[in-house]
Design goal:
heterodimer; A: 322 residues; MetI-like fold; 2 domains; B: 446 residues; alpha/beta; D-Maltodextrin-Binding Protein, domain 2; 43% helix
Chain lengths: 322, 446
């Protein structure tokens, strides 16, 4: 019963309270002198949003930072012990190494392939069909994508029918099957990153393609008249014009790479040295090492902040250009 | 405003409730903390069961609800330990009845906070019957000890009611292929020549893949070795983090385990064992020619054989108990159990627990199949479970599965170490050294 009451109160009550705040507040506002009204109204309207953001975003962030310097029961300050654990323990170092691999290869290939495909499909008549094909993996949830690829990577004993697509292909050429998710540390990490790229290329392509369409055809014609080859046009005209978009897409991919969790969790759960930072954070949480988990979270946060700033700046620049 | 509302999480809603209570002063009382009071008519129960297990539990509850008129509000919750921990910390509502914690530290902490209620009071005058009816290994700490947090006995009191159990470490075989007698010792088992039995390709089948929990089937195998090779004392101390992984006893366990999964002993080689899901691991036993002679797995696997291969327990396949390794430790059996603890001592909760402790209730579980009850004298239609019940009765110690009672990151590292040494046996020493590090870090409380 209690839960039902809570639900009803939350669904009906909270909007009512906010409505009351606005209507009641506006009534008070109207009685204020004009100059004061103009000054106070924005603060008044922004207050609920700022309040919610403070309670649900700023406060947890501050708490996370605090917890990262405290023991598990949150009763004692323990200095940098949790950070020391993060930067010295072999498991987290492996996770860091893998996360760097994700950062570099996932981001590079997702953006690079997205760019190439966007430019190529721009020049063919079946563009939308090709784009749909590339974009299809994007709406698939990472968990489903991981399961699909688990089947693709499936391994059966040598000499028996291979049910995994990749090993079936190898078998037709008379090669022994490869245990894709087990052979490490290169093959399995590459396999996981590949799945990540597969789910991300479509997104990069769509964004880059949209901004490609915005390049005016006059610029390209001018380049052609000046005698530029198609390759030169792509390299010297199109790509520089796309740079702001590529940066935004790239930083988004970098953040995705840092946050990678689901693909690794579903496909290997970090076995055979495939852990990444986020899966480490999760396993620390699971074993009630809240301090260490918070420290991982803070490191991840610090790593992402500069990217966010770049991203937001670029975005603002783009907005200004319009 | 829509955007603001969209950000509301469930916590936000609870907070919104607080705001509204201030404004409207409505009559719901103290919000989340009010609780159901000492109900005589309703009882809330959480369980991790789903599917057939949940259906069986509903069958068990039906006569209780019909005869007492008490309504059982059943919720499947696979995260109950965390949620109850949060509930205890925040002082919010707890379910009346739910599984007790498995982590010994949590058991002690919750008892000290009064969150767990002793069965001595809950069962009242039925308590002595419960103890005498139930497998001793599930209710009685080892001789000379008053506590065993793994079965939730602390300070001589019982904080959980055992309802179901399973036996692990059984060697399953195809009756048409393996016609010999069950080997008495582990060396005898390893010495069998598979090709003598219907031209089987290898001695063992194995499948260690299980999604995010990959490695647990391998951990069952090594658990069953260590408890029979070095005894229950070392085994239990090792679970508690008091014996290192590099300890000679544990290392010997790993080395013995590696004999079961060498390229020559395991069907399809090591990569096959690592890539195969545990549920399909035994299928090659029923191929022609058979892929292997034996699969080591718990009682539940019989259902998988039946589903995958259409074979019947008793006529097509059977099992023998884990052979002895050191005769001194015969009678150490690996099992797991399902239990319920009481978090709110209400009349309805007491009645439910008293009912679940009866033979009538547990017989319904036994009849629905797929599990052993916790009571010794249940009747099993399924020959597999009838024999498993004999093994459980004969157990001197029913020992828990190691990984399940280690801290979560220790468990993960332990499981994955078994995958790693299977993949590369040469890495054993470095793996054990690494496990020592994880052990030191994960058992630390801060």
């Amino acid at each position: 019963m209690d839960q039902i009451i809570t639900a009803v109160v939350a669904v009906v009550g909270v909007p009512l309270v906010l409505l009351g705040y606005i209507i009641g507040g506006e009534k008070v506002m109207e009685r204020l002198p004009d100059r004061l009204q103009g000054w106070a109204r924005p603060y008044f309207w922004a207050l609920p949003a700022v309040g919610f953001a403070t309670i649900f975003m700023v406060y947890p962030m501050v708490r996370t930072v605090i917890i990262s310097f405290r023991n598990n029961d949150d009763t004692e300050w323990i200095g940098l012990a949790n950070y020391k654990y993060f930067f010295t323990f072999p498991d987290t170092l492996t996770a860091l190494r893998n996360s760097v691999a994700w950062l570099v290869f996932y981001t590079f290939f997702a953006v690079f392939l997205g760019l190439i495909i966007a430019i190529l499909v721009d020049r063919v008549r079946y563009e939308s069909l090709a784009k749909i094909a590339i974009f299809l993996p994007v709406p698939i949830s990472a968990v489903a994508a991981s399961i699909i690829w688990k089947f693709m990577f499936d391994y059966q004993p040598p000499g028996t029918t291979q049910t995994g697509t990749l090993n079936a292909v190898l078998a037709t050429f008379g090669r022994d099957p490869v245990a894709w998710l087990i052979t490490g540390p290169f093959v399995n990490n590459a396999a996981l990153i590949f799945v990540g790229i597969w789910t991300a290329v479509g997104f990069c392509m769509v964004i880059i393609s949209a901004s490609l369409k915005a390049i005016s055809s006059e610029v390209l014609e001018a380049a052609r008249i000046d005698g530029a080859t198609e390759l030169q046009i792509v390299r010297l005209v199109v790509t520089p014009l796309l740079w702001p978009t590529i940066t935004v897409v790239g930083t988004t991919m970098l953040i995705n790479a840092l946050k990678t969790f689901d693909i690794v969790y579903v496909m290997t759960n970090g076995a055979y040295d495939t852990d990444v930072i986020a899966t480490r954070m999760f396993s620390q949480l699971q074993s009630s090492h809240f301090g260490r988990a918070a420290a991982v979270g803070v490191v991840l946060f610090i790593a992402i902040v500069p990217l966010l700033i770049v991203n937001i700046r670029r975005f603002q620049q783009q907005e200004e250009q319009r | 405003m829509a955007e603001v509302l969209a950000r509301l999480s469930s916590q936000a809603k609870a907070l919104g409730l607080g705001t509204l209570l201030l404004v409207v002063a409505c009559s719901t009382g103290g919000g989340g903390t009010s609780g159901g009071g000492a109900s005589t008519t309703d009882v809330t129960v959480w369980t991790a069961w789903g599917g057939d297990e949940l259906k069986a539990f509903r069958d068990v509850l039906k006569p209780f609800q019909d005869s007492t008129g008490i309504k059982v509000h059943l919720t499947t919750n696979r995260d109950s330990t965390n949620q109850i921990a949060n509930g205890i910390a925040a002082g919010t509502d707890l379910p009346d009845v739910a599984p007790g914690p498995t982590d010994p530290n949590l058991v002690k902490s919750w008892i000290s906070k009064g969150a767990l209620k002793p069965m001595e009071t809950i069962l009242g005058d039925k308590f002595n019957d419960y103890i005498s009816n139930t497998y001793p290994a599930l209710t009685t700490p080892a001789a000379g000890q008053s506590d065993n947090p793994y079965i939730l006995v602390v300070g001589g009191k019982h904080y959980a009611l055992m309802v179901k159990t399973q036996v692990k470490g059984l060697f399953w075989y195809n009756k048409k292929v393996f016609t010999g007698t069950a080997p008495k010792t582990f060396d005898e088992l390893l010495g069998l020549n598979p090709s003598q039995f219907g031209g089987a390709k290898s001695l063992f089948c194995a499948g260690f893949e299980s999604g995010a929990a990959s490695g647990w089937p391998a951990s069952d195998q090594i658990d069953n070795i260590i408890m029979r090779q070095s005894g229950d004392q070392i085994y239990t101390s090792w679970i508690q983090g008091k014996v290192k992984f590099s300890d000679p006893a544990i290392k010997l366990g790993y080395q013995t385990f590696l004999k079961e999964v060498s390229d020559s002993a395991v069907f399809g080689g090591r990569n096959t064992a690592l890539s195969t899901n545990f549920g399909k691991a035994g299928d090659p036993m029923f191929n022609s020619p058979p892929g292997c002679l034996f699969l080591e797995q718990a009682t539940f696997i019989a259902n998988f054989f039946h589903q995958n291969k259409g074979v019947t327990a008793g006529t097509d396949f059977d099992f023998f108990a884990h052979p002895s390794i050191n005769s001194q430790y015969d009678g150490n059996v690996n099992g797991f159990y399902d239990q319920f603890s009481v978090y709110n001592d209400t009349p309805a909760a007491r009645k439910l627990m008293q009912y679940l402790a009866t033979k009538d209730a547990q017989q319904i579980w036994a009849d629905d199949g797929g599990t052993l009850g916790a009571i010794k004298t249940l009747k099993y239609k399924d020959p597999i479970f009838a024999r498993a019940a004999e093994i459980a009765s004969g157990a001197k110690n029913l020992l828990v599965t190691a990984g399940d009672f280690m801290p979560a990151d220790m468990q993960k590292a332990f499981w994955q170490s078994l995958l790693n040494v299977t993949r590369n046996p040469g890495s054993l020493d470095s793996e054990l050294k690494h496990l020592d590090q994880v052990q030191a870090a994960s058992y630390a409380t801060s």
